[in-house]
Automatic annotation (TrEMBL):
This protein's pathway: Porphyrin-containing compound metabolism; protoporphyrin-IX biosynthesis; 5-aminolevulinate from L-glutamyl-tRNA(Glu): step 2/2
SUPFAM superfamilies with a match to the protein in the record: PLP-dependent transferases (SSF53383)
Name this protein carries in UniProt: Glutamate-1-semialdehyde 2,1-aminomutase
Organism of this sequence: Nocardioides terrae
Primary residence: cytoplasm
């Protein structure tokens, strides 16, 4: 059995020990703990462009990009200047400000939403969108898909009940059964399951929420016409279609995942959620949609929603600077770099005899170490996690920081230049060999608790 190369990182080891003494698992969002790959998470001291530097002084090409937000790379000079100027003007007033108006206008220009409301996290965005959908329709039932992650909203931390179109059960301790008993969890890309749910509960369904193109079980593109089908069946039944673009928004393309199939096919979500890129690396998120629906929100409508730091002037300034700089050239650059990396990874894995599936949505992509097609969560779950752990550590040891979980997209930025891409390409052949050597081994995670494949165990 190959030994796990966890690297020599004494400063990260020491910080991780201190962190675990005062924080559960030593992290503030589970996926950072390396539970799925073992070893010590690198504590990052600073970042510039495509590079992370850890507290031991090691440099890594960053393929996490803060799980999506850093579209322009780290410490982009123009974003930084805008943020510094905003900080100099004070950091929060609890009053309306100009940057939040400008950011709302920028989002309305790039997406089909007519109005937006800012919040501080993607979780709040999806939670609020669902409340609004329930308030607007006067109905209670929510449909989601297995493997789609919408933040840690009680009603959405749900696992499918037994049998098709039966109500869900809590996906984690701490969520009461009463929070998931109005949630239906269906297999992704499965039209007949959606048909059946609407047949059975059509007049009780407030909304269907889906990732516009799932990225949280790895990248799983919607089957041709699937989103349009969802928009249509919702409309016919008087339910709202909520497209969650917290990950894909302003990332998969200039207009997010909607720009890839919504605009071309002519479907429009009733509500959308955004986060990650639109916060420019700060805690900012949003939900938005049709004006007549958004007008049901307080203070104009009866559906209550609020937030002390919502629309924070520093966060909205960072988001606005990011969107202004996110030109067509930025997406073209990221797309080209992504193409180079994914073909090289595929070649290296093929050469090492490691079965894999490469999937993309615009500039986002994932590599699943499996022989099975990956159209839903069941397919994604066939990934060889031991092979991924070995691949991950081999890359890390060669200066490339991949997502520490086999079920994630790899994120690039406009700052990923030739030097960064060449560093990735140079690391791939050895990492593919390491994956081949570990393939099929059921290696226990050295840091304890294993990875839950029953639902998203991340962030
Ligand atoms: C990240 C993410 C969320 C949750 O956002 P947080 O800011 O982590 O709460 C919701 N939906 C999708 C699709 C995401 O990728």
């Amino acid at each position: 059995m190959p030994t796990l190369d966890t690297g020599h990182v004494p400063a990260s080891d020491a910080l991780f020990a201190r962190a675990r003494a005062v924080t559960p698992g030593g992290v503030n969002s589970p996926v950072r703990a390396f539970n799925a790959v073992g070893g010590t998470p690198r504590f990052i001291r600073e970042a510039k462009g495509p590079w992370l530097t850890d507290v031991d002084g090691n440099r890594y090409v960053d393929l996490i990009c803060s799980w999506g937000p850093m579209l322009l790379g780290h410490a982009h000079p123009e974003v930084q200047a805008a943020v510094q100027a905003a900080v100099a003007r004070g950091t929060s007033y609890g009053t309306p400000t100009e940057p939040e108006v400008e950011l709302a206008e920028a989002i309305v220009r790039r997406t089909p939403v007519e109005e937006v409301r800012f919040v501080s996290s993607g979780t709040e965005a999806t939670m609020s969108a669902i409340r609004l959908a329930r308030g607007f329709t006067g109905r209670d039932v929510v449909i989601k898909f297995a493997g789609c992650y919408h933040g840690h909203v009680d009603a959405l931390l749900a696992s499918a009940g037994s049998g098709l179109a039966t109500f869900a059960v809590p996906g984690t301790p701490g969520v009461p059964a009463s929070s998931t008993e109005l949630t239906l969890v269906l297999p992704y890309n499965d039209r007949s399951a959606v048909d059946k749910a609407f047949e059975e509960y059509g007049d009780r369904i407030a909304c269907l929420i889906t990732e516009a193109a799932p990225g949280n079980m790895g990248v799983v593109p919607p089957a041709d016409g699937f989103n349009g089908f969802l928009a249509d069946i919702c409309r016919r039944h008087g339910a709202l279609f909520i497209s969650d673009e917290v990950m894909t928004g302003f990332r998969a393309s200039r207009e997010g995942a909607w720009g890839l199939d919504g605009r071309p096919e002519g479907w429009t979500p009733d509500l959308m959620t955004f986060g990650k890129v639109m916060g420019g690396g700060f805690p900012a998120a949003a939900f938005g949609g049709r004006a007549d629906i958004m007008q049901r929100l307080s203070p104009v409508g009866p559906v209550y929603q609020a937030g002390t730091l919502s629309g924070n002037p520093v966060a909205t300034t960072a988001g606005l600077a990011t969107l202004r700089l996110a030109t067509d050239e930025v997406y073209a650059h990221i797309g080209a770099a992504a193409d180079t990396v994914k073909s090289a990874a595929s070649e290296a894995l093929t050469a090492a005899g490691v079965p894999h599936v490469v999937q993309s949505v615009g500039t986002m992509f994932s590599i699943f170490l499996t022989e099975q097609p990956v159209a839903d969560f069941a397919g994604a779950s066939t990934t060889d996690v031991a092979a991924y752990a070995a691949f991950f550590h081999a890359m890390l040891g060669r200066g490339v920081y991949l997502p520490p979980s086999a079920y994630e997209a790899w994120f690039l930025s406009s700052a990923h230049d030739d030097e960064a891409v060449d560093t990735i390409l140079a690391a791939l052949p050895d990492a593919a060999q390491a994956a081949a050597a570990a393939s099929g081994l059921d290696r226990p995670s050295p840091s304890g608790s294993g990875y839950s494949t029953s639902e998203k165990d991340a962030r």
